[in-house]
Amino acid sequence: MQEAFDLLIRQGRAVTPAGVVETDIGVRAGRIAGLGDLSAARSAETLDARRLLVLPGVIDSQVHLREPGLEHKEDLETGTAAAALGGVTAVFEMPNTKPATTDPGALEDKLRRARGRVWCDVAFLVGASRENADRLVEYERLPGCAGIKVFMGSSTGSLLVEDDETLERVLRSGVRRVAVHAEDEPRLRERRTLAESRHEPAAHPDWRDEETALRATRRLLALAATTSRPVHVLHVTTAGEVLLLAEHKDLASMEVTPQHLTFAAPECYERLGSRAQMNPPIRGEEHRAALWHAVETGIVDVIGSDHAPHTLEEKARPYPASPSGMPGVQTMLPVMLEHVAAGRLRLERLVDLLCAGPARVYGVAGKGRIAVGYDADLVLVDPRIERTIEDAMVRSRCGWTPFAGMPVRGWPVATIVRGHLVMRDDELLGEPAGRPVRFLGCPA
């Protein structure tokens, strides 16, 4: 009997757990149901992937979609549309909205807002605070919850866990890996006058210096060891942290961003001004080199965009009143494909960092690899396409990108979410049909 599928992707070069192989991929009921020579199969829809790469859908595990409360910068629809255009099939949204996501009601409100409006699958992190620290063990198992997020240093929003007593309470309340923004708040307060006296974005890495990050990460690792709680250190920026985290892989996983791998101070501040301003900051070349070494040697577990849009009007405020953060969910895959084309990392390693790595770190069920039984989340990439990234192509409501003017080689030409073709040739298709991401051991 002739095998039947809902969708067949034919003769693509797929990055699978077995390596890069030319294969057909058969999709049925939203999941990968067949790999290999499926030339005899029939299908309701077929995509010709000859001369294309087929990657697992990208999981961007750090995005700020700004809804509720800050929709003038971004919302769930515009942010996930940008994600789908960039080959991202799932996003984990951060809790520093207005109001912050700190309880079941706020989480359910975001899930309700997402229904029928998101172009890719979504999950939401719950923010830790002094008030909810002892309840997080209940919250981390709620459907649609990607885990718990801690801000040890102040950034955009009001969430802050700056003292060790509260941080230890947070780490003792639950078992899932905790995502942490590791900057030392007391040191940030002590050094703020450096930013206020200079009034230029180039002061940002001096104010939020290497010691600010190192001090927080040391404190975090000590408490992680005391509580036996795994942690995930977000947007690592310093050579010192790389060395420290390499010694604690039993406790801590590590994320870097495309912007910290691509830009370096002082050039980025001279060229981009406050558009290069983010927390933790873009630092000098020695730190960028250390991050690349960490990528090459396997210390880095995840690349996330830290998509954090602000309007250009907000970014134009005099420093340090200008907000920190930049958009990145749509450009993450193209930028990293350029690094592959330039020989800085292998394609298989990129897939591990963008797809399998986030699934491992956060315990995602059924995503992150091209394998039978997994969700049919896929992105087709044409490695022959050469483009220059421009502000005009950005779907995010903020309408700009720090990567404008950057030439890249390799471009996502189709995005498939659970077997549904949602983007082809830079156009969104159909209607938003994203669902909550499922996590191992948690209710669906």
Which CATH C-level class of the largest domain is it? Answer: Alpha Beta
CATH architecture of the largest domain: Alpha-Beta Barrel
Global outline:
globular
> What is the total number of structural domains?
2
Strand content: 15-25%
Question: For the report, how would you describe the main beta sheet?
Answer: 9 strands, mixed
Helix content: 25-40%
CATH-defined topology of the largest domain: TIM Barrel
Rg for CA atoms: 21 Å
State the end-to-end distance: 35 Å
Instruction: Spell out the CATH superfamily of the largest domain.
Output: Metal-dependent hydrolases
Question: What is the count of DSSP helices, taking H or I runs of 4+ residues?
Answer: 14
Low-pLDDT segments, ≥5 res = none
Overall average residue pLDDT:
97
Number of strands: 17
Sheet/helix structural class: alpha/beta
Write up what this structure looks like.
With 444 residues, the chain is of the alpha/beta class. It has two domains: 108 residues, Urease, subunit C, domain 1 (Roll); 306 residues, Metal-dependent hydrolases (TIM Barrel, Alpha-Beta Barrel), CATH 3.20.20.140. 30% of the residues lie in helices and 25% in strands. It is built from 14 helices and 17 strands. Strands 1, 2, 3, 4, 5, 14, 15, 16 and 17 form a nine-stranded mixed sheet that branches. Helix 4 crosses helix 7 and helix 7 packs parallel to helix 8.
List the helices and strands and how they pair.
Blueprint: E1 4-16, E2 19-28, E3 31-36, E4 42-48, E5 53-56, E6 58-63, H1 76-85, E7 88-93, H2 104-114, E8 121-127, H3 136-139, E9 145-151, H4 164-172, E10 178-181, H5 185-198, H6 204-207, H7 210-227, E11 231-233, H8 239-246, E12 252-256, H9 258-262, H10 267-272, H11 285-296, E13 302-303, H12 312-315, H13 332-341, H14 347-362, E14 378-388, E15 407-417, E16 420-424, E17 427-428
Parallel strand pairs: 1-4, 1-5, 6-7, 7-8, 8-9, 9-10, 10-11, 11-12, 12-13
Antiparallel strand pairs: 1-2, 2-3, 5-14, 14-15, 15-16, 16-17
Helix pairs in contact: 4-7, 7-8
